[in-house]
């Protein structure tokens, strides 16, 4: 097997690896409820493509962080708490609720203290948290300040390796032509 073929196979492998490492959107978020309660911080990931007929909403696929010093342990399945749809609108201007990352149904998660929380938007102006403690049988609603920002993107190593491999192939072709 010639060196050119070996390099070609190596580049094809790197290209496949680069495609396999494509990731969904990752965002950091924080929510500060009124009167200093309901402090929620963390990050979530979304699917690669928007949900059909959602107006551009991306389904949440994972979440981590804390709610009032209690670890967030999981997303709540769709329509299982406060009508949640677990949609995130990355383009706030075109979101379902006028400049809001969430719609009125919101995103829901459960924490280690056995509380269910739903973060939602009302007309893109008011951001709220609905909280129910399963152990105590109580529910509260608060309004507050919500911040969502894209998480720092990792360095695309497979892309860098592909670029390096392409340069090596080019050098190999030049060397072969000079030798001929």
TrEMBL record:
<feature type="domain" description="Ice-binding protein C-terminal">
    <location>
        <begin position="154"/>
        <end position="178"/>
    </location>
</feature>
<dbReference type="InterPro" id="IPR013424">
    <property type="entry name" value="Ice-binding_C"/>
</dbReference>
<feature type="signal peptide">
    <location>
        <begin position="1"/>
        <end position="22"/>
    </location>
</feature>
<keyword id="KW-0732">Signal</keyword>
<protein>
    <submittedName>
        <fullName>PEP-CTERM protein-sorting domain-containing protein</fullName>
    </submittedName>
</protein>
<dbReference type="Pfam" id="PF07589">
    <property type="entry name" value="PEP-CTERM"/>
</dbReference>
